[in-house]
Every structure is written in structure tokens, then in C-alpha cells.
């Protein structure tokens, strides 16, 4: 659905952001967990190759990934550089003959690393700051590439990994776009990533609400169903109020994408959307847990889905840009627009 037919996709002629919204919303109905991990990371790691990679690279990578025969992951974050992408330290030194890069460094919290055949990798080819960053496509099979699984709070099937690059020799033909333009490619790609995360997160918040309503209709306390207690109705109303507001925001951003607003102008909107979604999810997960009571803290029984969802809250609030970083970014963008 997401990709052009030339690469083996099934994208309809009238494809727009709403098709993608429906896709990730429906997939998120499974209730969190690792099922979205590699599927969604392909859609985040492949666009830089499709949009900026040379033709030979696109011919090599795009069709196998789109048709599900291969996988690709996004390798940006490092042990000392998460949301502050401009501070990455992974180096790519060009050889004297200009034919290869020697890449050294570590990438942390890399989704889908154990399954990835390639990594869209942020490296430092120049000086400090954002202007020294480039993107390389690194083959998992190259000597010096090692991948280790990391245990996570939310889901051990999600395939979160540490990737170590030890003097990995990468052909210059694996440069994505131009040297020193990597930060620009990353930032524009982040807007799509945040829209995707927000879409799935909003559905997860709605799942918390749905589970809480179903439980409140059947569970009895003090001679009444939970739904007959005014305080429980208040909790449910507050949950759905926040969820519907967030859904409206998701669809508004989708409309902007579909209307052709350049992604470079949607940074603030996508940042605020992701924060809105993760905060709504956190609130809904908490309130659903309170309604389920003890059933929400065990991994079995009626409350097991809410327990699982609650473990995933921080995995929506931090990856793709933490809430604090995104709120600050949105305000800085607003100040630039107002020339303050």
C-alpha cells in the first residue's frame, strides 16, 4: 500500500496520507507489541534510499524490502546521542583514493536490528554539528558489523538492538544523497516517523478505553456495575475526550500531508502531534489500569491487554524524539516563523 508499483508495491493511484493512517491504525489494533516494529521501521528507513539514493542503490534495495524478502533498519541514535542527533559521533573516514569509507562507532536502540539486511546509517563525515552528518547504506553482512539484542521494558519481541561498527569498509557508492546533507534528510524523515507513531499510539489509547468500557459493563462492585458509579463514568468520559481530540489532530496532519504541504513545513505540527498522542496514551493507560484494578498488573486474565499496553507507554513517549525535545522544537519553530 505504501510503495509505488515499480518497486513491487500496491499503492493505489489516489494514494495519500489517509491510506497510511488507516494502515497503521488497523495494525495497532493488535494491542501493541513487536508486530509493528520491523514493519514500521522499513517505512522509516527506506524513504531516504528511495528519495535520495543513487539508482543502483534503489535497484538493489527497494524491491526486496517492499516485497518482504529483505529488511532495512534506521541506525541513528547512539549511546551519547539520542534526540540530539547533531551530536552523533559515529565516524566515516574516506580513504585516500576516495573509493571507500571506514565506519566506526555504535548505534543504540535500533529497531529491527536482528532482522535487518541493511542499515540506513547516520555517520559523521565532516566537522561538528549538523553540517558534518551524512547517510550511508551499510550492509549487515560487511565485516565489522555486529548486532546484539537489548532487553526492553515494553516488549522483548520488538527486536531493539545495539549495533557496533568496527572499521567497517563501505563503498562510496553507498552514500545516500550528498555528503553533509544527512541531517536534513533525517529531519524530514522524522516528520513522517512521528506521524506514524502518533497514529498507532492513538489507536493504543483507544484500546485502553475500549477495554475499560467492556470491563466496566460487566464488573460489579458494591452491588452495582462499575459503569453505574459516577466516578467511573467520569474517568471514561475524560479518556474518550482526550482520545477524540487526538484523533482529530492525527487526521488534520494527514490532511496537510495529503494536501501537499511540504514536509519541511510540518516539523512543529508533527512534533506536537506525537506529544499529544503519547500523553493521551499515558493518561488512557493509567485510567484503564485504575478501572481494572489488580487485574491490570498481572499478565493474564481480563486485564492482560491493558497491562501490556501500559508497558508500551514510554516506548511511544521517547523514541522518535522525546516529549520534552519535541515541545521545545515546536516552540522554536514557531518563534522562527514569527521572526522573534
Describe the protein's architecture and organization.
The mean pLDDT is 93. The two termini are 42 Å apart. The chain has nine helices and ten strands. With 340 residues, it is an alpha+beta fold. α2 (35-52) runs antiparallel to α4 (182-218). It has helices spanning 17-27, 35-52, 55-66, 182-218, 230-258, 267-292, 304-311, 313-317, 323-337, and strands at 72-75, 91-94, 100-111, 118-124, 133-139, 145-149, 160-171, 175-176, 220-221, 224-225. It is elongated.
Furnish the topology, listing elements before pairings.
Elements (H helix, E strand, L loop, with lengths): L16 H11 L7 H18 L2 H12 L5 E4 L15 E4 L5 E12 L6 E7 L8 E7 L5 E5 L10 E12 L3 E2 L5 H37 L1 E2 L2 E2 L4 H29 L8 H26 L11 H8 L1 H5 L5 H15 L3
Parallel strand pairs: 1-4
Antiparallel strand pairs: 2-3, 3-7, 4-5, 5-8, 6-7, 9-10
Helix pairs in contact: 1-4, 2-3, 2-4, 4-5, 4-6, 5-6, 6-7, 6-9
List segments where confidence is low: pLDDT < 50 over at least 5 consecutive residues: none
Order of helices and strands: HHHEEEEEEEEHEEHHHHH
Q: What's the Cα radius of gyration?
A: 21 Å
Number of helices: 9
Which structural class matches the secondary elements? alpha+beta
Helix content: 40-55%
Q: Which percent range describes the beta-strand content?
A: 15-25%
Query: Globular, elongated, flat, extended or rod-shaped: what is the shape?
Result: elongated
Average pLDDT reading: 93
Give the strand order, joined by hyphens, for the main sheet: 1-4-5-8
Distance between the termini: 42 Å
Largest sheet: 4 strands, mixed
- Please count the beta strands (DSSP E, at least 2 residues each): 10
Amino acid at each position: 500500500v505504501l510503495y509505488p508499483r515499480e518497486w513491487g508495491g500496491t499503492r493505489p493511484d489516489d494514494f495519500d496520507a489517509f491510506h497510511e493512517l488507516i494502515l497503521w491504525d488497523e495494525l495497532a489494533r493488535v494491542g501493541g507489541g513487536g508486530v509493528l516494529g520491523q514493519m514500521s521501521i522499513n517505512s522509516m528507513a527506506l524513504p531516504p534510499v528511495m528519495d535520495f539514493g543513487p539508482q543502483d542503490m534503489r535497484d538493489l534495495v527497494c524491491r526486496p524490502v517492499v516485497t518482504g524478502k529483505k529488511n532495512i533498519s534506521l541506525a541513528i541514535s547512539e549511546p551519547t546521542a539520542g534526540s540530539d542527533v547533531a551530536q552523533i559521533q559515529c565516524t566515516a573516514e574516506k580513504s585516500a583514493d576516495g573509493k571507500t569509507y571506514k565506519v566506526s562507532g555504535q548505534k543504540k536502540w535500533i529497531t529491527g536490528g536482528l532482522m535487518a539486511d541493511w542499515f540506513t546509517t547516520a555517520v559523521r563525515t565532516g566537522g561538528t554539528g549538523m553540517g558534518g552528518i551524512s547517510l550511508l547504506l551499510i550492509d549487515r553482512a560487511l565485516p565489522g558489523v555486529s548486532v546484539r539484542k537489548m532487553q526492553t521494558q515494553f516488549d522483548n519481541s520488538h527486536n531493539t538492538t545495539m549495533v557496533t561498527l568496527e572499521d567497517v569498509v563501505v563503498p562510496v557508492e553507498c552514500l545516500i544523497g550528498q555528503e553533509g546533507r544527512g541531517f536534513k534528510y533525517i529531519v524530514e524523515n522524522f516528520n513522517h516517523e512521528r506521524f506514524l507513531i502518533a497514529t498507532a499510539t492513538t489507536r493504543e489509547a483507544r484500546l485502553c478505553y475500549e477495554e475499560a468500557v467492556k470491563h466496566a459493563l460487566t464488573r460489579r462492585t458494591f452491588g452495582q456495575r462499575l459503569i453505574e458509579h459516577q466516578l467511573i463514568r467520569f474517568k471514561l468520559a475524560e479518556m474518550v475526550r482526550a482520545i477524540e481530540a487526538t484523533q482529530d489532530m492525527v487526521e488534520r496532519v494527514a490532511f496537510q500531508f495529503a494536501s501537499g504541504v511540504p514536509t519541511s513545513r510540518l516539523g512543529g505540527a508533527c512534533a506536537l502531534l506525537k506529544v499529544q498522542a503519547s500523553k493521551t496514551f499515558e493518561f488512557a493507560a493509567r485510567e484503564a489500569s485504575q478501572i481494572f484494578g489488580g487485574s491490570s498488573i498481572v499478565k493474564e486474565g481480563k486485564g492482560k491487554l491493558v497491562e501490556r499496553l501500559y508497558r508500551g507507554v514510554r516506548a511511544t513517549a521517547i523514541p522518535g524524539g522525546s516529549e520534552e525535545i519535541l515541545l521545545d522544537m515546536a516552540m522554536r519553530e514557531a518563534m522562527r516563523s514569527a521572526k522573534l
